Amino acid sequence: MSDSELVSECLKGKSSAQRTLFQLHSGKMFAVSLRYMGSTMEAEEVLQESFIKVFEKLNQWKGNGPLGGWIRTIVVNTALTRIKNNKKFRLDKNIDDAVSLTDNGEDQLEALQAADLMKLIAQMPDGYKTVFNLFVVEGYGHKEIGDLLGISESTSKTQFLKAKNWLVKRINEQ
After folding, report:
1. What digits encode the pLDDT tens for the residues 96-140?
2. In which residue ranges of the chain is CATH 1.10.10.10 found?
3. What H or E segment, with its residue span, contains residue 8?
């Protein structure tokens, strides 16, 4: 069944189609949520909230791109909203404290296995993790990240540099 057919069946209220849509996309979307939230419980909450939004707004999907991409955007935005509303989320805005990576650190970062890297990313402070995920994983630019998070482009760049430095430090400790 194509994305368009599946959406059409969901919009008709067919529970089997809704279950299929959820089963097709929930695994990948949980992984996206987990990258932002860090804990399984929070990631599950974001996933649930996201799919509620997906089903509420399914009539807004225009079929211009893959359904999975549209759902991913909802998951990322839901996670970002939760992070922004979390009082623990802090962004250090002092760019002078940012230290650039050494060549040695970049080599070590590239050598890391993806699973090990994901574990380290999950341990990052929220501000670092959010900007790192948006920039590296999702492919947003620093201006877009600033707009999404309500911070300056400079702050986004600082957080990214600090996230990279944080990763290098953890890699060197291992």
Report:
1. 444 444 344 444 444 546 667 777 788 888 888 888 888 888 888
2. 95-173
3. helix 3-11
